Each structure stands twice: as structure tokens, then as C-alpha cells.
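// run 5 | inverse folding | seed 20
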């Protein structure tokens, strides 16, 4: 009986120990299997802020100027294309009026010279000039003035040509008269020659006095002189006619040459005036500052009329509205090897109550090509962009997100076992230790 009591006592002492050892082995086994088979998701933690796909737009002006009208203030909502500010354009309008006056006068003069060059009856004014003339009586007056000048010069040319034509007719008539006289003299010369032959024959026979023969010879010589004089006169008149015809042709030629020369000079002036006009019109088109995108006016630097704006100086900003939201976050260089485009991420908005606001799922869409450095702290980082997945923003229950709000991003990495998490620090340590030795 004592032996049975002793065995019972030993069992009571070793039983719990055995059960504990078995439980320990089971626990170790379960933990071992769990540490190998289980998978725990890792994450790269990145801090960032909310941005919109189109970042804030700065409004500035190339030339600057004096503010004539300010139409918005901070907080106002504007649509793309709305005028937010006007500059004083009086000086530009005055410059444009001077340039256009010179240009329109030049174009009207050019039309008149082209008509003179080409022998036209009306001015070939360009469509642009005619369109301006339809709107402005002063431009029409320029065209009318050049038309009258063209007609006056054409009349002068016609009159000069007609005068030369009359001189040619007179010379032709003189030639006709001279030819008639020449014909009569030639007839007289034939008769004198016949009488002279008869007188010489009678003189040789002693039937006619010598004085008669001498008289006929003198008359023959006179007629020969008259005939020569008239022949020379006809030749001179013909030369005069040729010269007059050349002069008549030269009138038109000279007018065209003058027109061509003047057109050549006007060409350079026209190019200069056209360029100056286009430049002034372009500057005038920028006297109205318009919103490039729809959004909210922010940080306006203009508070009163007649303020002077310097060229390329920021005037105000527009925060775009109704644009897709993105999260711009910074990843430490040591974690960039675990980050890639298309990677899933969870977004937590620090400005909201974390108990009431669920996490929003997103996806990495952009990673900077190189490391960046914060100019203030000197910390190096990679910039990434995360876009919330479709339908995820509804989880916020209408809470308003504004650009600049802080966001904490948890970028999901590959799943690893618990054993891998526990062993990695040791393996990394020994790897460095062995390399160091």
C-alpha cells in the first residue's frame, strides 16, 4: 500500500511537468509553423500632402503695367477665360493709332504705285485696307486721295502724250508740204535743163546770146539748192518725229520706273510697320489678364487701382478646382528599392479624426527619376505620386480635401514570413560583420 501511495505521489508531481513540456513543444511547433507559413504585409511609410493634378497656376504679365481695373479678390471663384485684371492701355492705343495711320497711308500709296506700274485704271487696294476703310472714314479718305492723285498723274501723262502727238502731226504735215515743194522744184529743174540744152544749142549756132545761157544756168543752180534744202528739211523733220515718238514712249516708261523704284523703297517700310503693328496688337491683347483655369483666387498681390505691376512678377495664384486629387509623398532613399509604379498604398489623412475616417486605397503612379534634396533641411528623398483608386473617395463621406493637407501613406511591400522579419536583422548584421572582417 505504501508503494502504491508512493507511485501516486510521483505521478502527481511529474504529470503537470509532462503536460507542460508537451504543451511547450506544441506551442513551439505551432509558432514554428506559423513563423514559416504565415505571411505579414510590410509597408514603406511616406509623409506627403494633397495636391491637385494641375498645380496652382501663377498669373503674371510679360510687360507689366498700371492696373486700371481689378475684378477679383482672394477667395473668389473664377472660370477659365474670365478676366481678372485689366491694365491701362491708353499709351498702347495711341501708339497703335500712329502705326496704323502710317501703315494705311503707305498701303494706299502702294496701291497707286502698283496701278501706275501695271497701267491699271483703278487702285488695286488690298482686302485688308478695304475692310479698314469700311470701318474708318479716315482710311477711306486716304484711298480716295491716292485715287485722285493717280487720276491727276494719268491725266498729266495723257496730256503730255497728246502734245507730243500734235507735234508729230505737225512734223508730218511739214514733210508733206516740203515734199510737194520738192516735187514742184524737181519739175522746174527738168524744164530748166531742157531750156538750157536748147539755149546752148542756139548759142553754138550764134542764134542766142550768152546772157541767156548764163541766166538759165543760174536758175538751174538755184533750183538744185532749193531741192537740196528741202531734202535736208524732210530728213530733219523725220528725225524730229522719231525723237518725239521716243519721248512719247519714255513718258510711260519713266512713270513705271519711278513707280517700281518707289515700291521697292516702300517694301521695307511696310515690313517694319506690319511687324510693329502686330507687336502692339499682341501687347494690347495682354492688357486683359484672364484665368487660365477654373479655380479659386489665392494670394493676390494687387489691392488698389493704379498699382504698378513689374514685368514677370507674380500677381495672384489660382488653385484649380474639380481636378483629380493626387498625393505627393516623400520616400527615403533606403526604401526606394521597395517602391515601384503600380504599387498599392493606404492613405491616412492626418487632419481628420482617425477613429471616424477610414483609410483610402490608392496606387503609386509616378516616381522621381533621381533623388531630390530638401533645400531647407538638406534631407534627401524620392518624390512619388499616389492617386486614390476609383470609388475610394466616397469613404470620406463628403469631407472636404484641400491642397496642402498632410497625408500619411503606407505603401504596401511584398509579403514576408514572421521568421524572415526576425532573422533579417541578424543576417544583415552578420553579413556586415563578415564583410568588415
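// decoded
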Amino acid at each position: 500500500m505504501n508503494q502504491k501511495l508512493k507511485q501516486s505521489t510521483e505521478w502527481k508531481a511529474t504529470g503537470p511537468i509532462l503536460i507542460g513540456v508537451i504543451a511547450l513543444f506544441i506551442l513551439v511547433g505551432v509558432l514554428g509553423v506559423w513563423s514559416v507559413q504565415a505571411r505579414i504585409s510590410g509597408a514603406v511609410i511616406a509623409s506627403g500632402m494633397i495636391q491637385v493634378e494641375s498645380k496652382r497656376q501663377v498669373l503674371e504679365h510679360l510687360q507689366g503695367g498700371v492696373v486700371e481695373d481689378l475684378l477679383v479678390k482672394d477667395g473668389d471663384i473664377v472660370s477659365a477665360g474670365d478676366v481678372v485684371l485689366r491694365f491701362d492701355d491708353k499709351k498702347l492705343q495711341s501708339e497703335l493709332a500712329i502705326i496704323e495711320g502710317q501703315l494705311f497711308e503707305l498701303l494706299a500709296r502702294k496701291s497707286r504705285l502698283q496701278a501706275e506700274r501695271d497701267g491699271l485704271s483703278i487702285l488695286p487696294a488690298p482686302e485688308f485696307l478695304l475692310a479698314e476703310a469700311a470701318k474708318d472714314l479716315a482710311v477711306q479718305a486716304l484711298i480716295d486721295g491716292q485715287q485722285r492723285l493717280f487720276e491727276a498723274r494719268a491725266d498729266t501723262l495723257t496730256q503730255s502724250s497728246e502734245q507730243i502727238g500734235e507735234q508729230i502731226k505737225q512734223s508730218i504735215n511739214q514733210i508733206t508740204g516740203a515734199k510737194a515743194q520738192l516735187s514742184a522744184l524737181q519739175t522746174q529743174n527738168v524744164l530748166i535743163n531742157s531750156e538750157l540744152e536748147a539755149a546752148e544749142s542756139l548759142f553754138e549756132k550764134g542764134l542766142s546770146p550768152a546772157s541767156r545761157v548764163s541766166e538759165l544756168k543760174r536758175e538751174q543752180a538755184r533750183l538744185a539748192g532749193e531741192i537740196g534744202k528741202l531734202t535736208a528739211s524732210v530728213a530733219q523733220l523725220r528725225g524730229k518725229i522719231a525723237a518725239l515718238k521716243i519721248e512719247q514712249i519714255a513718258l510711260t516708261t519713266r512713270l513705271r520706273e519711278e513707280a517700281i523704284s518707289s515700291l521697292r523703297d516702300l517694301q521695307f517700310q511696310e515690313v517694319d510697320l506690319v511687324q510693329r503693328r502686330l507687336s502692339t496688337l499682341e501687347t494690347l491683347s495682354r492688357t486683359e489678364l484672364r484665368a487660365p483655369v477654373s479655380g479659386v483666387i489665392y494670394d493676390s498681390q494687387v489691392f488698389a487701382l493704379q498699382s504698378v505691376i513689374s514685368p514677370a512678377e507674380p500677381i495672384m495664384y489660382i488653385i484649380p478646382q474639380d481636378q483629380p486629387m493626387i498625393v505627393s509623398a516623400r520616400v527615403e532613399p533606403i526604401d526606394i528599392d521597395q517602391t515601384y509604379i503600380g504599387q498599392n498604398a493606404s492613405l491616412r489623412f492626418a487632419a481628420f479624426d482617425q477613429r471616424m475616417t477610414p483609410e483610402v486605397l490608392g496606387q503609386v503612379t509616378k516616381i522621381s527619376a533621381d533623388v531630390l534634396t530638401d533645400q531647407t533641411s538638406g534631407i534627401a528623398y524620392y518624390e512619388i505620386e499616389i492617386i486614390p483608386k476609383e470609388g475610394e473617395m466616397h469613404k470620406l463621406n463628403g469631407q472636404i480635401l484641400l491642397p496642402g493637407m498632410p497625408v500619411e501613406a503606407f505603401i504596401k511591400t511584398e509579403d514576408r514570413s514572421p521568421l524572415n522579419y526576425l532573422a533579417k536583422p541578424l543576417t544583415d548584421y552578420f553579413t556586415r560583420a563578415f564583410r568588415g572582417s
